[in-house]
Specification:
With 59 residues, the chain is mostly beta strands. The chain has 1 helix and 5 strands; from the N terminus they run E-E-E-E-H-E.
């Protein structure tokens, strides 16, 4: 099982087999790098859904 960073709201299952972790903070979408959260080039989780990203939502 992979390490899931604290605060993760969504896991994107990449077509290349990897997982990318996202969370929204103060209206900005953040993604997990190896050590910390960085602002994502994708504006919001809703856009990922609209464009058919394979996502798992964390409660």
């Amino acid at each position: 099982m992979n390490f899931i960073p604290n605060g993760t709201q969504v896991i994107h299952h990449s077509k290349h087999g990897g997982e990318i972790y996202y969370k929204e903070v103060n209206g900005k979408l953040m993604h997990w790098t190896k050590e910390d959260w960085q602002v994502s080039c994708i504006p919001e989780i809703k856009m990922m859904e609209i464009h058919g990203f394979k996502l798992t939502f964390i409660n």
